[in-house]
Amino acid sequence: MLSVVRVHLPSEIPIVGCEITPYVLLRRPDGAVSTDDVPETAPTDGQFMRYRWYRIQSDRKVPICSVHPMEQATIQCLGCLKSKIPVAKSYHCSAKCFSDAWQHHKVLHERASSALNENGAEEDELFGRFGSGGSGVLSTAGSGSLSNFGQSPSNGPVPLYPSGTDKNSGETWFEVGRSRTYTPLADDIGHALKFECVAVDAEKRTPMGPPTSIMTSRVIPAPTPTPRRLIQVNGDVLGHLDLDSQTSSLGTFTVLSYNILADAYATSDAYSYCPTWALSWTYRRQNLLREIIGYHADIICLQEVQFNHFEDYFAPELDKHGYQALYKKRTTEVYSGNPMAIDGCATFFRRDKFSHVKKYEVEFNKAAQSLTDAIIPAAQKRVALSRLIKDNIALIAVLEAKFGNQGAENPGKRQLLCVANTHINVHQDLKDVKLWEVHTLLKGLEKIAVSADIPMLVCGDFNSTPGSSPHGLLAVGKVDQLHPDLAIDPLGILRPPSKLNHQLPLVSAYSSFARMVGVGYDLEHQRRRMDPATNEPLFTNCTRDFTGTVDYIFYTADSLTVESLLELLDEESLRKDTALPSPEWSSDHIALLAEFRCKPRIRR
User: Fold this and answer.
1) Is residue 597 a contact partner of residue 560, using CB atoms and an 8 Å limit?
2) Is 389 a residue whose pLDDT tops 90?
3) Segment 55-66 mean pLDDT
4) CA proximity to 184, closest of 323, 11, 342
5) In the predicted model, is pLDDT for residue 156 greater than 90?
6) How far apart are CA 208 and CA 48, in angstroms?
7) Is the pLDDT of residue 340 over 90?
8) Band of the pLDDT at 526, cuts 50, 70, 90?
9) What is the mean pLDDT of the chain?
10) CA 40 to chain centre
């Protein structure tokens, strides 16, 4: 007989918009134990599994703090209600909570006053909108007034299925789902859910025993991070753009680079400060996708994208938003885990802005093999390869723009663009290997540059801080021969140091913040988030163990100019005493985004 052995939930906290698929262990009629489902459409021995989800209504709905979703709310912002901001975002657990969050919260008022329901009420209710900046002036219409409430407002939900009462417990409930998977809605916030499963006789349509059930804790709203604006850096006046309505102007395009933190690395051991529910992939993937889509980038370069997540989630989801996908998986000479879980680099581009011309794949393992064959004695090759082979890769895409800015001087001239996406995942002690991989990539890009007059972008996580030899090679075109990193070269792969150079005129996009002249709140705000000694952001990676900059977008300054940049985060934006990942931000890195314009070509 088909029966349930055990049921448990993947996370103790259900979150609005985050799919829940309980773990159900079944004993089949032949005695085998399996987690494979037995649906009504494919019964086994005349039996199948029936699933039900219920919303428990036995007590009044408990309002949840929009900043600290594990805390019950005690005050409510009246300005949110007046501005018709989703009610879930109006709740706070204390006056201090509201005060600390005001810089973030006031942006909701600004957004509401300038573009009410621009992206649809349902999306706002569930997740909020990323990146809209409003006018930059605090709206006087949506004040920060508060009200204490003793009685929670009613959601007034309409049951999807007939409601009922559990005679044993006296709990009032109504049915909200009839599948194994359920995605909590805004109406579920503050209520517990019950999952129920039972084996059913396919012919008689009757249960074959009592159901097995499990309860969740109260549903909480999905936390929303501080909106990030696009700051204009090229022009007479420093301004900012609204990402919600932002579309690249003629001849410009935007590029996003983001290490999204592969699920295989997002463990509670590594990130013990992050709630387990916020580390779950079902939560993180939706939070990441919302953020990525919200930036409206024309080109997206992602690192640490697991192969199965690319195939099953990111490629099909971004395809719905008009993106074509390219992917390169890391090699597996060192990796010994699940082959589907190995990560790599994914590059997406908007079909209406670009077409795909050519794809290059760089495997540093192959380059290491060629190097050792050329310069390492046979007796030392095994040791050398064990040091050099790290399974890292780079994905290079040559795209053709479907927009033009060449004007009458170059009628019909193709506008090509080369985009390199990489993750140099090398231990900090192997400085020689890290520098060698960056140098190898740049030499490969030089060959492409020689063969075509083409602007270039080099994006990714280089695991190299400003001032390191890889960063110097990228930003300056050479490595100081007295750089301390060169002292670590047991294989002699960096000799002579004079060879460590390239001819690409690369500049870090975010150094534009440091080079801007003028005064103003936005400018000073961004300068405080930059390191004046290196002209790079103070951090792009922020954990309890490390805070620093390792992610970059480099561009060829002879063919591209930076028009605007996505504003940087600071400690205030991350909320006090918070490291990444967090419930608001689902990676330990922050996203970088730059808008570029192609410089007019000069006919020769």
Assistant:
1) yes
2) yes
3) 76
4) 11
5) no
6) 10
7) no
8) confident
9) 85
10) 37
Measured CA to CA, the distance from residue 125 to residue 545 in angstroms comes to 35
Three-state DSSP string of 185-252: CHHHECCCEEEEEEEEECCCCCECCCCEEEECCCEECCCCCCCCCEEECCCCCCCEECCCCCCCCCCE
Q: Which residue would you say has higher pLDDT here, 401 or 234?
A: 401
Strands (E) located in 273-376: 299-306, 323-329, 343-350, 354-363
Nearest CA-CA partner of 569 in 532, 528, 534, 509: 528
d(CA 27, CA 156): 40
Q: What is the pTM of this model?
A: 0.84
């097995």: which residue's tokens? 212
- Assess whether pLDDT exceeds 60 at residue 535: yes
d(CA 425, CA 404): 37
Contact between 218 and 192 under an 8 Å Cβ cutoff? The reply is: yes
For residue 243, the model assigns a pLDDT of 61
Cα separation values, 463 from 259, 268, 303, 537, Å = 11, 22, 12, 14
How long a stretch of residues is the chain?
604
Q: How far apart are CA 460 and CA 345, in angstroms?
A: 9
CA 111 to CA 533: how far, in whole Å? 36
Cα distance between the two ends of the chain: 82
For residue 22, count CB atoms less than 10 angstroms from its CB and return exposed for 0-12, middle for 13-18, buried for 19 or more: middle
Does residue 459 contact residue 301 with C-beta atoms inside 8 Å?
yes
539/561 Cα distance (integer angstroms): 23
Report in angstroms the alpha-carbon separations of 490 from 369, 429, 481, 485.
17, 12, 16, 12
